[in-house]
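Q: Okay, next protein. This is dTDP-4-dehydrorhamnose 3,5-epimerase from Parasphingopyxis marina. I've checked the sequence twice, so it should be correct. Can you predict the 3D structure?
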Amino acid sequence: MKVSQTAVQGVLLIEPQIHGDDRGFFYESWRQDVYAEAGIAGPFVQDNHSRSAKGVLRGIHYQIQQPQGKLVRATRGAVFDVAVDLRRSSPSFGQWTGHELSEDNRLMLWVPPGCGHGFLTLSDEADFQYKCTAYYAPEHERTILWNDPDIGIGWPLDGDPSLSGKDAQGVPFAEAELYP
Ligand SMILES: Cc1cn([C@H]2C[C@H](O)[C@@H](COP(=O)(O)OP(=O)(O)O[C@H]3O[C@@H](C)C(=O)[C@@H](O)[C@H]3O)O2)c(=O)[nH]c1=O
């Protein structure tokens, strides 16, 4: 497994070791001891799976209380996955990092608590699966506007994204409730 630090402190890009043979492939998509050693602190308490059509953009989401660390990957298709640093005390506060995660490159991203998260679906359809370190708490959920100019995420968009009503009404970064 290869682990790389990204432009956002604590956001890690993970390249698992793939064991391919004439049957297909095998890899350990999470393993407590190895991932803990790499700095991916658990424990994980919830697994999620979403499916999105091309052009669907979900995010930028975070929970102001019960913040979630997320270990994310695309198990079908491809997405452009983004983490935004929302920790005022962080050296990379306000910065974002974006990476293509796909069923072909099998990359994963570790998004620690304190970061916002979102993704854009690049393929006709994408299955997105992730482990979370805290339970979903809708009362604490917050959404920052996906195209906030102060953050300036470089989404690889071809036209307008498809958004939920909640995401279309995301809060500007400058007005958002953030972490200390
Ligand atoms: C996130 C979540 C949603 N739901 C429900 C609420 C709603 O009826 C439906 C769809 O919810 P949403 O529109 O919030 O789903 P979605 O936009 O996919 O939300 C997710 O976006 C990505 C970017 C993240 O980082 C995740 O943490 C999560 O916020 O699923 C749960 O039951 N549990 C959950 O953990």
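A: Here is a summary of the prediction. The CA atoms of residues 73 and 108 lie 5 Å apart. The chain has a mean pLDDT of 97.
Q: Noted. On to the next one.
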